[in-house]
Each structure stands twice: as structure tokens, then as C-alpha cells.
Amino acid sequence: MPRITEQARQVYRGEMTAAKHAADPACRWRHLERAHIVSQPDPWLHTCNHAAMLTLALRQHDRREALGQVLRLVVAAPGSMTGRYPVGNTGRVAAGLMTPMPIPADLAATLIHA
Questions:
Q1: Environment class of residue 40 by beta-carbon count within 10 Å: exposed (0-12), middle (13-18) or buried (19+)?
Q2: Are 62 and 55 in contact, with CB atoms under 8 Å apart?
Q3: How many Cβ atoms are within 10 Å of 113's Cβ, its own excluded?
Q4: Dihedral through CA 11, CA 31, CA 108, CA 65, nearest 10?
Q5: What gap in Å lies between CA 113 and CA 87, rounded to an integer?
Q6: How far is CA 27 from CA 17, 22, 41, in A?
Q7: Model confidence pLDDT, tens digit, residues 43-90
Q8: By Cβ atoms counted within 10 A, which residue in 49, 66, 75, 112 is the most buried?
Q9: What is the 3-state secondary structure (H, E, C) of the chain?
Q10: How confident is the model at residue 113, as a pLDDT?
Q11: Distance set, CA 45 to CA 15, 49, 74 (Å)
Q12: Residue 76 burial class via C-beta count within 10 angstroms: exposed 0-12, middle 13-18, buried 19 and up
């Protein structure tokens, strides 16, 4: 099973904290997306990230995003445990469920692909 480093966990926590305190919804989404990229190898963090995304989608009354996040909540942990997740994917509905994406350079150094 892929694992993440303690440094990646710290980046994840920092992005989740920044999302929680961001005043602008677009900024919240950006932090949640960055946290998603880092969290993918860890089943628990990956699932927690999608729960936070679902919460924000519901607060914004975004049905499409909320339904997409419900689906992602179901597949997040199994995908992480089996290593079947789209590396670099931001976790949003618009990104596609299994579409790999480039990892931002500042996040790439924090990830381990075991």
C-alpha cells in the first residue's frame, strides 16, 4: 500500500487548515484540491478530504459537486489502499474521477510513491 511521509502529512494538515480559515470559497476549494493531491496515498486522509469537499459543496448548494463527492467518498479509501487513484487529480467533479493531472511542483517533493 502506498504511504505518505510525515512532511506530506504536515502539508496536508496545513492545506486543510488554510481551507477552513479561507474567507473566499474559491480559495477554500484551492486548498482542498491541494490537500487532495497530497492525501491520495493515505486512505484515511483521502476520505477526510472528500468529506470536507462534500461539506463545502453542500454549503454552496452545489448539487453536482455534492453528488460527485458522495461517489468519491465511497471509492477514496479502497482506491488509496489498492494504489488505484489518479495521481495529481484535484478531487473535484470537473477533474473527472480517474483523470491523472500534473502535480504542482511545490507539492511533488512531498510525495512518495511506494
A1: buried
A2: no
A3: 9
A4: 130
A5: 10
A6: 12, 6, 24
A7: 999 999 999 999 999 999 999 999 999 999 999 999 999 999 999 999
A8: 49
A9: CCCCCHHHHHHHHHHHHHHHHCCCHHHHHHHHHHHHHHHCCCHHHHHHHHHHHHHHHHHCCCHHHHHHHHHHHHHHHHHHHHCCCCCCCCCCHHHCCCCCCCCCHHHHCCCCCC
A10: 46
A11: 12, 6, 14
A12: buried
* Cell numbers standing for residue 38: 497530497
Q: Backbone phi, then psi, for 86, in 5-degree steps?
A: -80, 105
Identify residue 72 by its one-letter amino acid code.
R
